[in-house]
């Protein structure tokens, strides 16, 4: 039986999207069926228009990725949230999706599933670790089994953090996500899939 992995992310300029796709590649390589879902923008159109490329990127990604739903949570055996950093914290867009899931949380639909996070920042010290760790209490409240990246793969000694995959890019010029960061994301997808598969029989 396939292991189902939901990757629910928010991305504005494509960096977190690139990580999400790499996480998906790793999960699929480990045998997972994957759903990639992008949380929707919640700011006013005039705010989006004030940032070059935001509206165009949103339109492109909305065409590629459905919005995440409560049904995706019920379907998933592993749930991986991805977000850019906002002042060392998760984006309002992803948090709005998570905050909408009270109904499935109350029904215990998260309990015993694997949970993990990843993020993108605008600089090496742009808040990747604080963003990841800020999401861990959310995973705990939901009832997920937190799966960190740790140092269980050689790539972790070259990139990423022990908490999650992350990318540090020049957001002002939208530079490409470094290859090592994408490799950490693939490893994270594999790792979460393996843990989710092991946990699945225990959920009854």
Primary descriptors:
8 helices; 17% strand; 6-stranded parallel sheet; 204 residues; alpha/beta; Rossmann fold
Overall description:
The protein is α/β, with parallel strands linked by helices. The chain has a single domain (3-203), classed as Rossmann fold (3-Layer(aba) Sandwich), CATH 3.40.50. 42% of the residues lie in helices and 17% in strands. The chain contains 8 helices and 6 strands, in the order E-H-E-H-H-H-E-H-H-E-H-E-E-H. Strands 1, 2, 3, 4, 5 and 6 form a 6-stranded parallel β-sheet that branches. Helix 1 links the parallel strand 1 (3-9) and strand 2. Helix 1 packs across helix 8 (179-199).
Task: Give the topology, please.
Elements: E1 3-9, H1 15-29, E2 32-38, H2 45-49, H3 54-64, H4 70-75, E3 78-84, H5 92-99, H6 102-106, E4 114-121, H7 128-142, E5 145-146, E6 165-168, H8 179-199
Helix pairs in contact: 1-8
Main β-sheet: number of strands, strand sense, barrel status? 6 strands, parallel
- Structural class computed from helices and strand pairing: alpha/beta
Strands, count: 6
Give the H and E element order. Answer: EHEHHHEHHEHEEH
- How big is the Rg? 16 Å
Q: Taking all residues together, what is the mean pLDDT?
A: 93
Helix amount, in percent?
40-55%
Distance between the termini: 14 Å
Name the CATH class: Alpha Beta
Please identify which CATH superfamily we are dealing with: Flavodoxin domain
How many DSSP helices? 8
Can you give me a brief rundown of this structure?
The chain is built from 8 helices and 6 strands, in the order E-H-E-H-H-H-E-H-H-E-H-E-E-H.
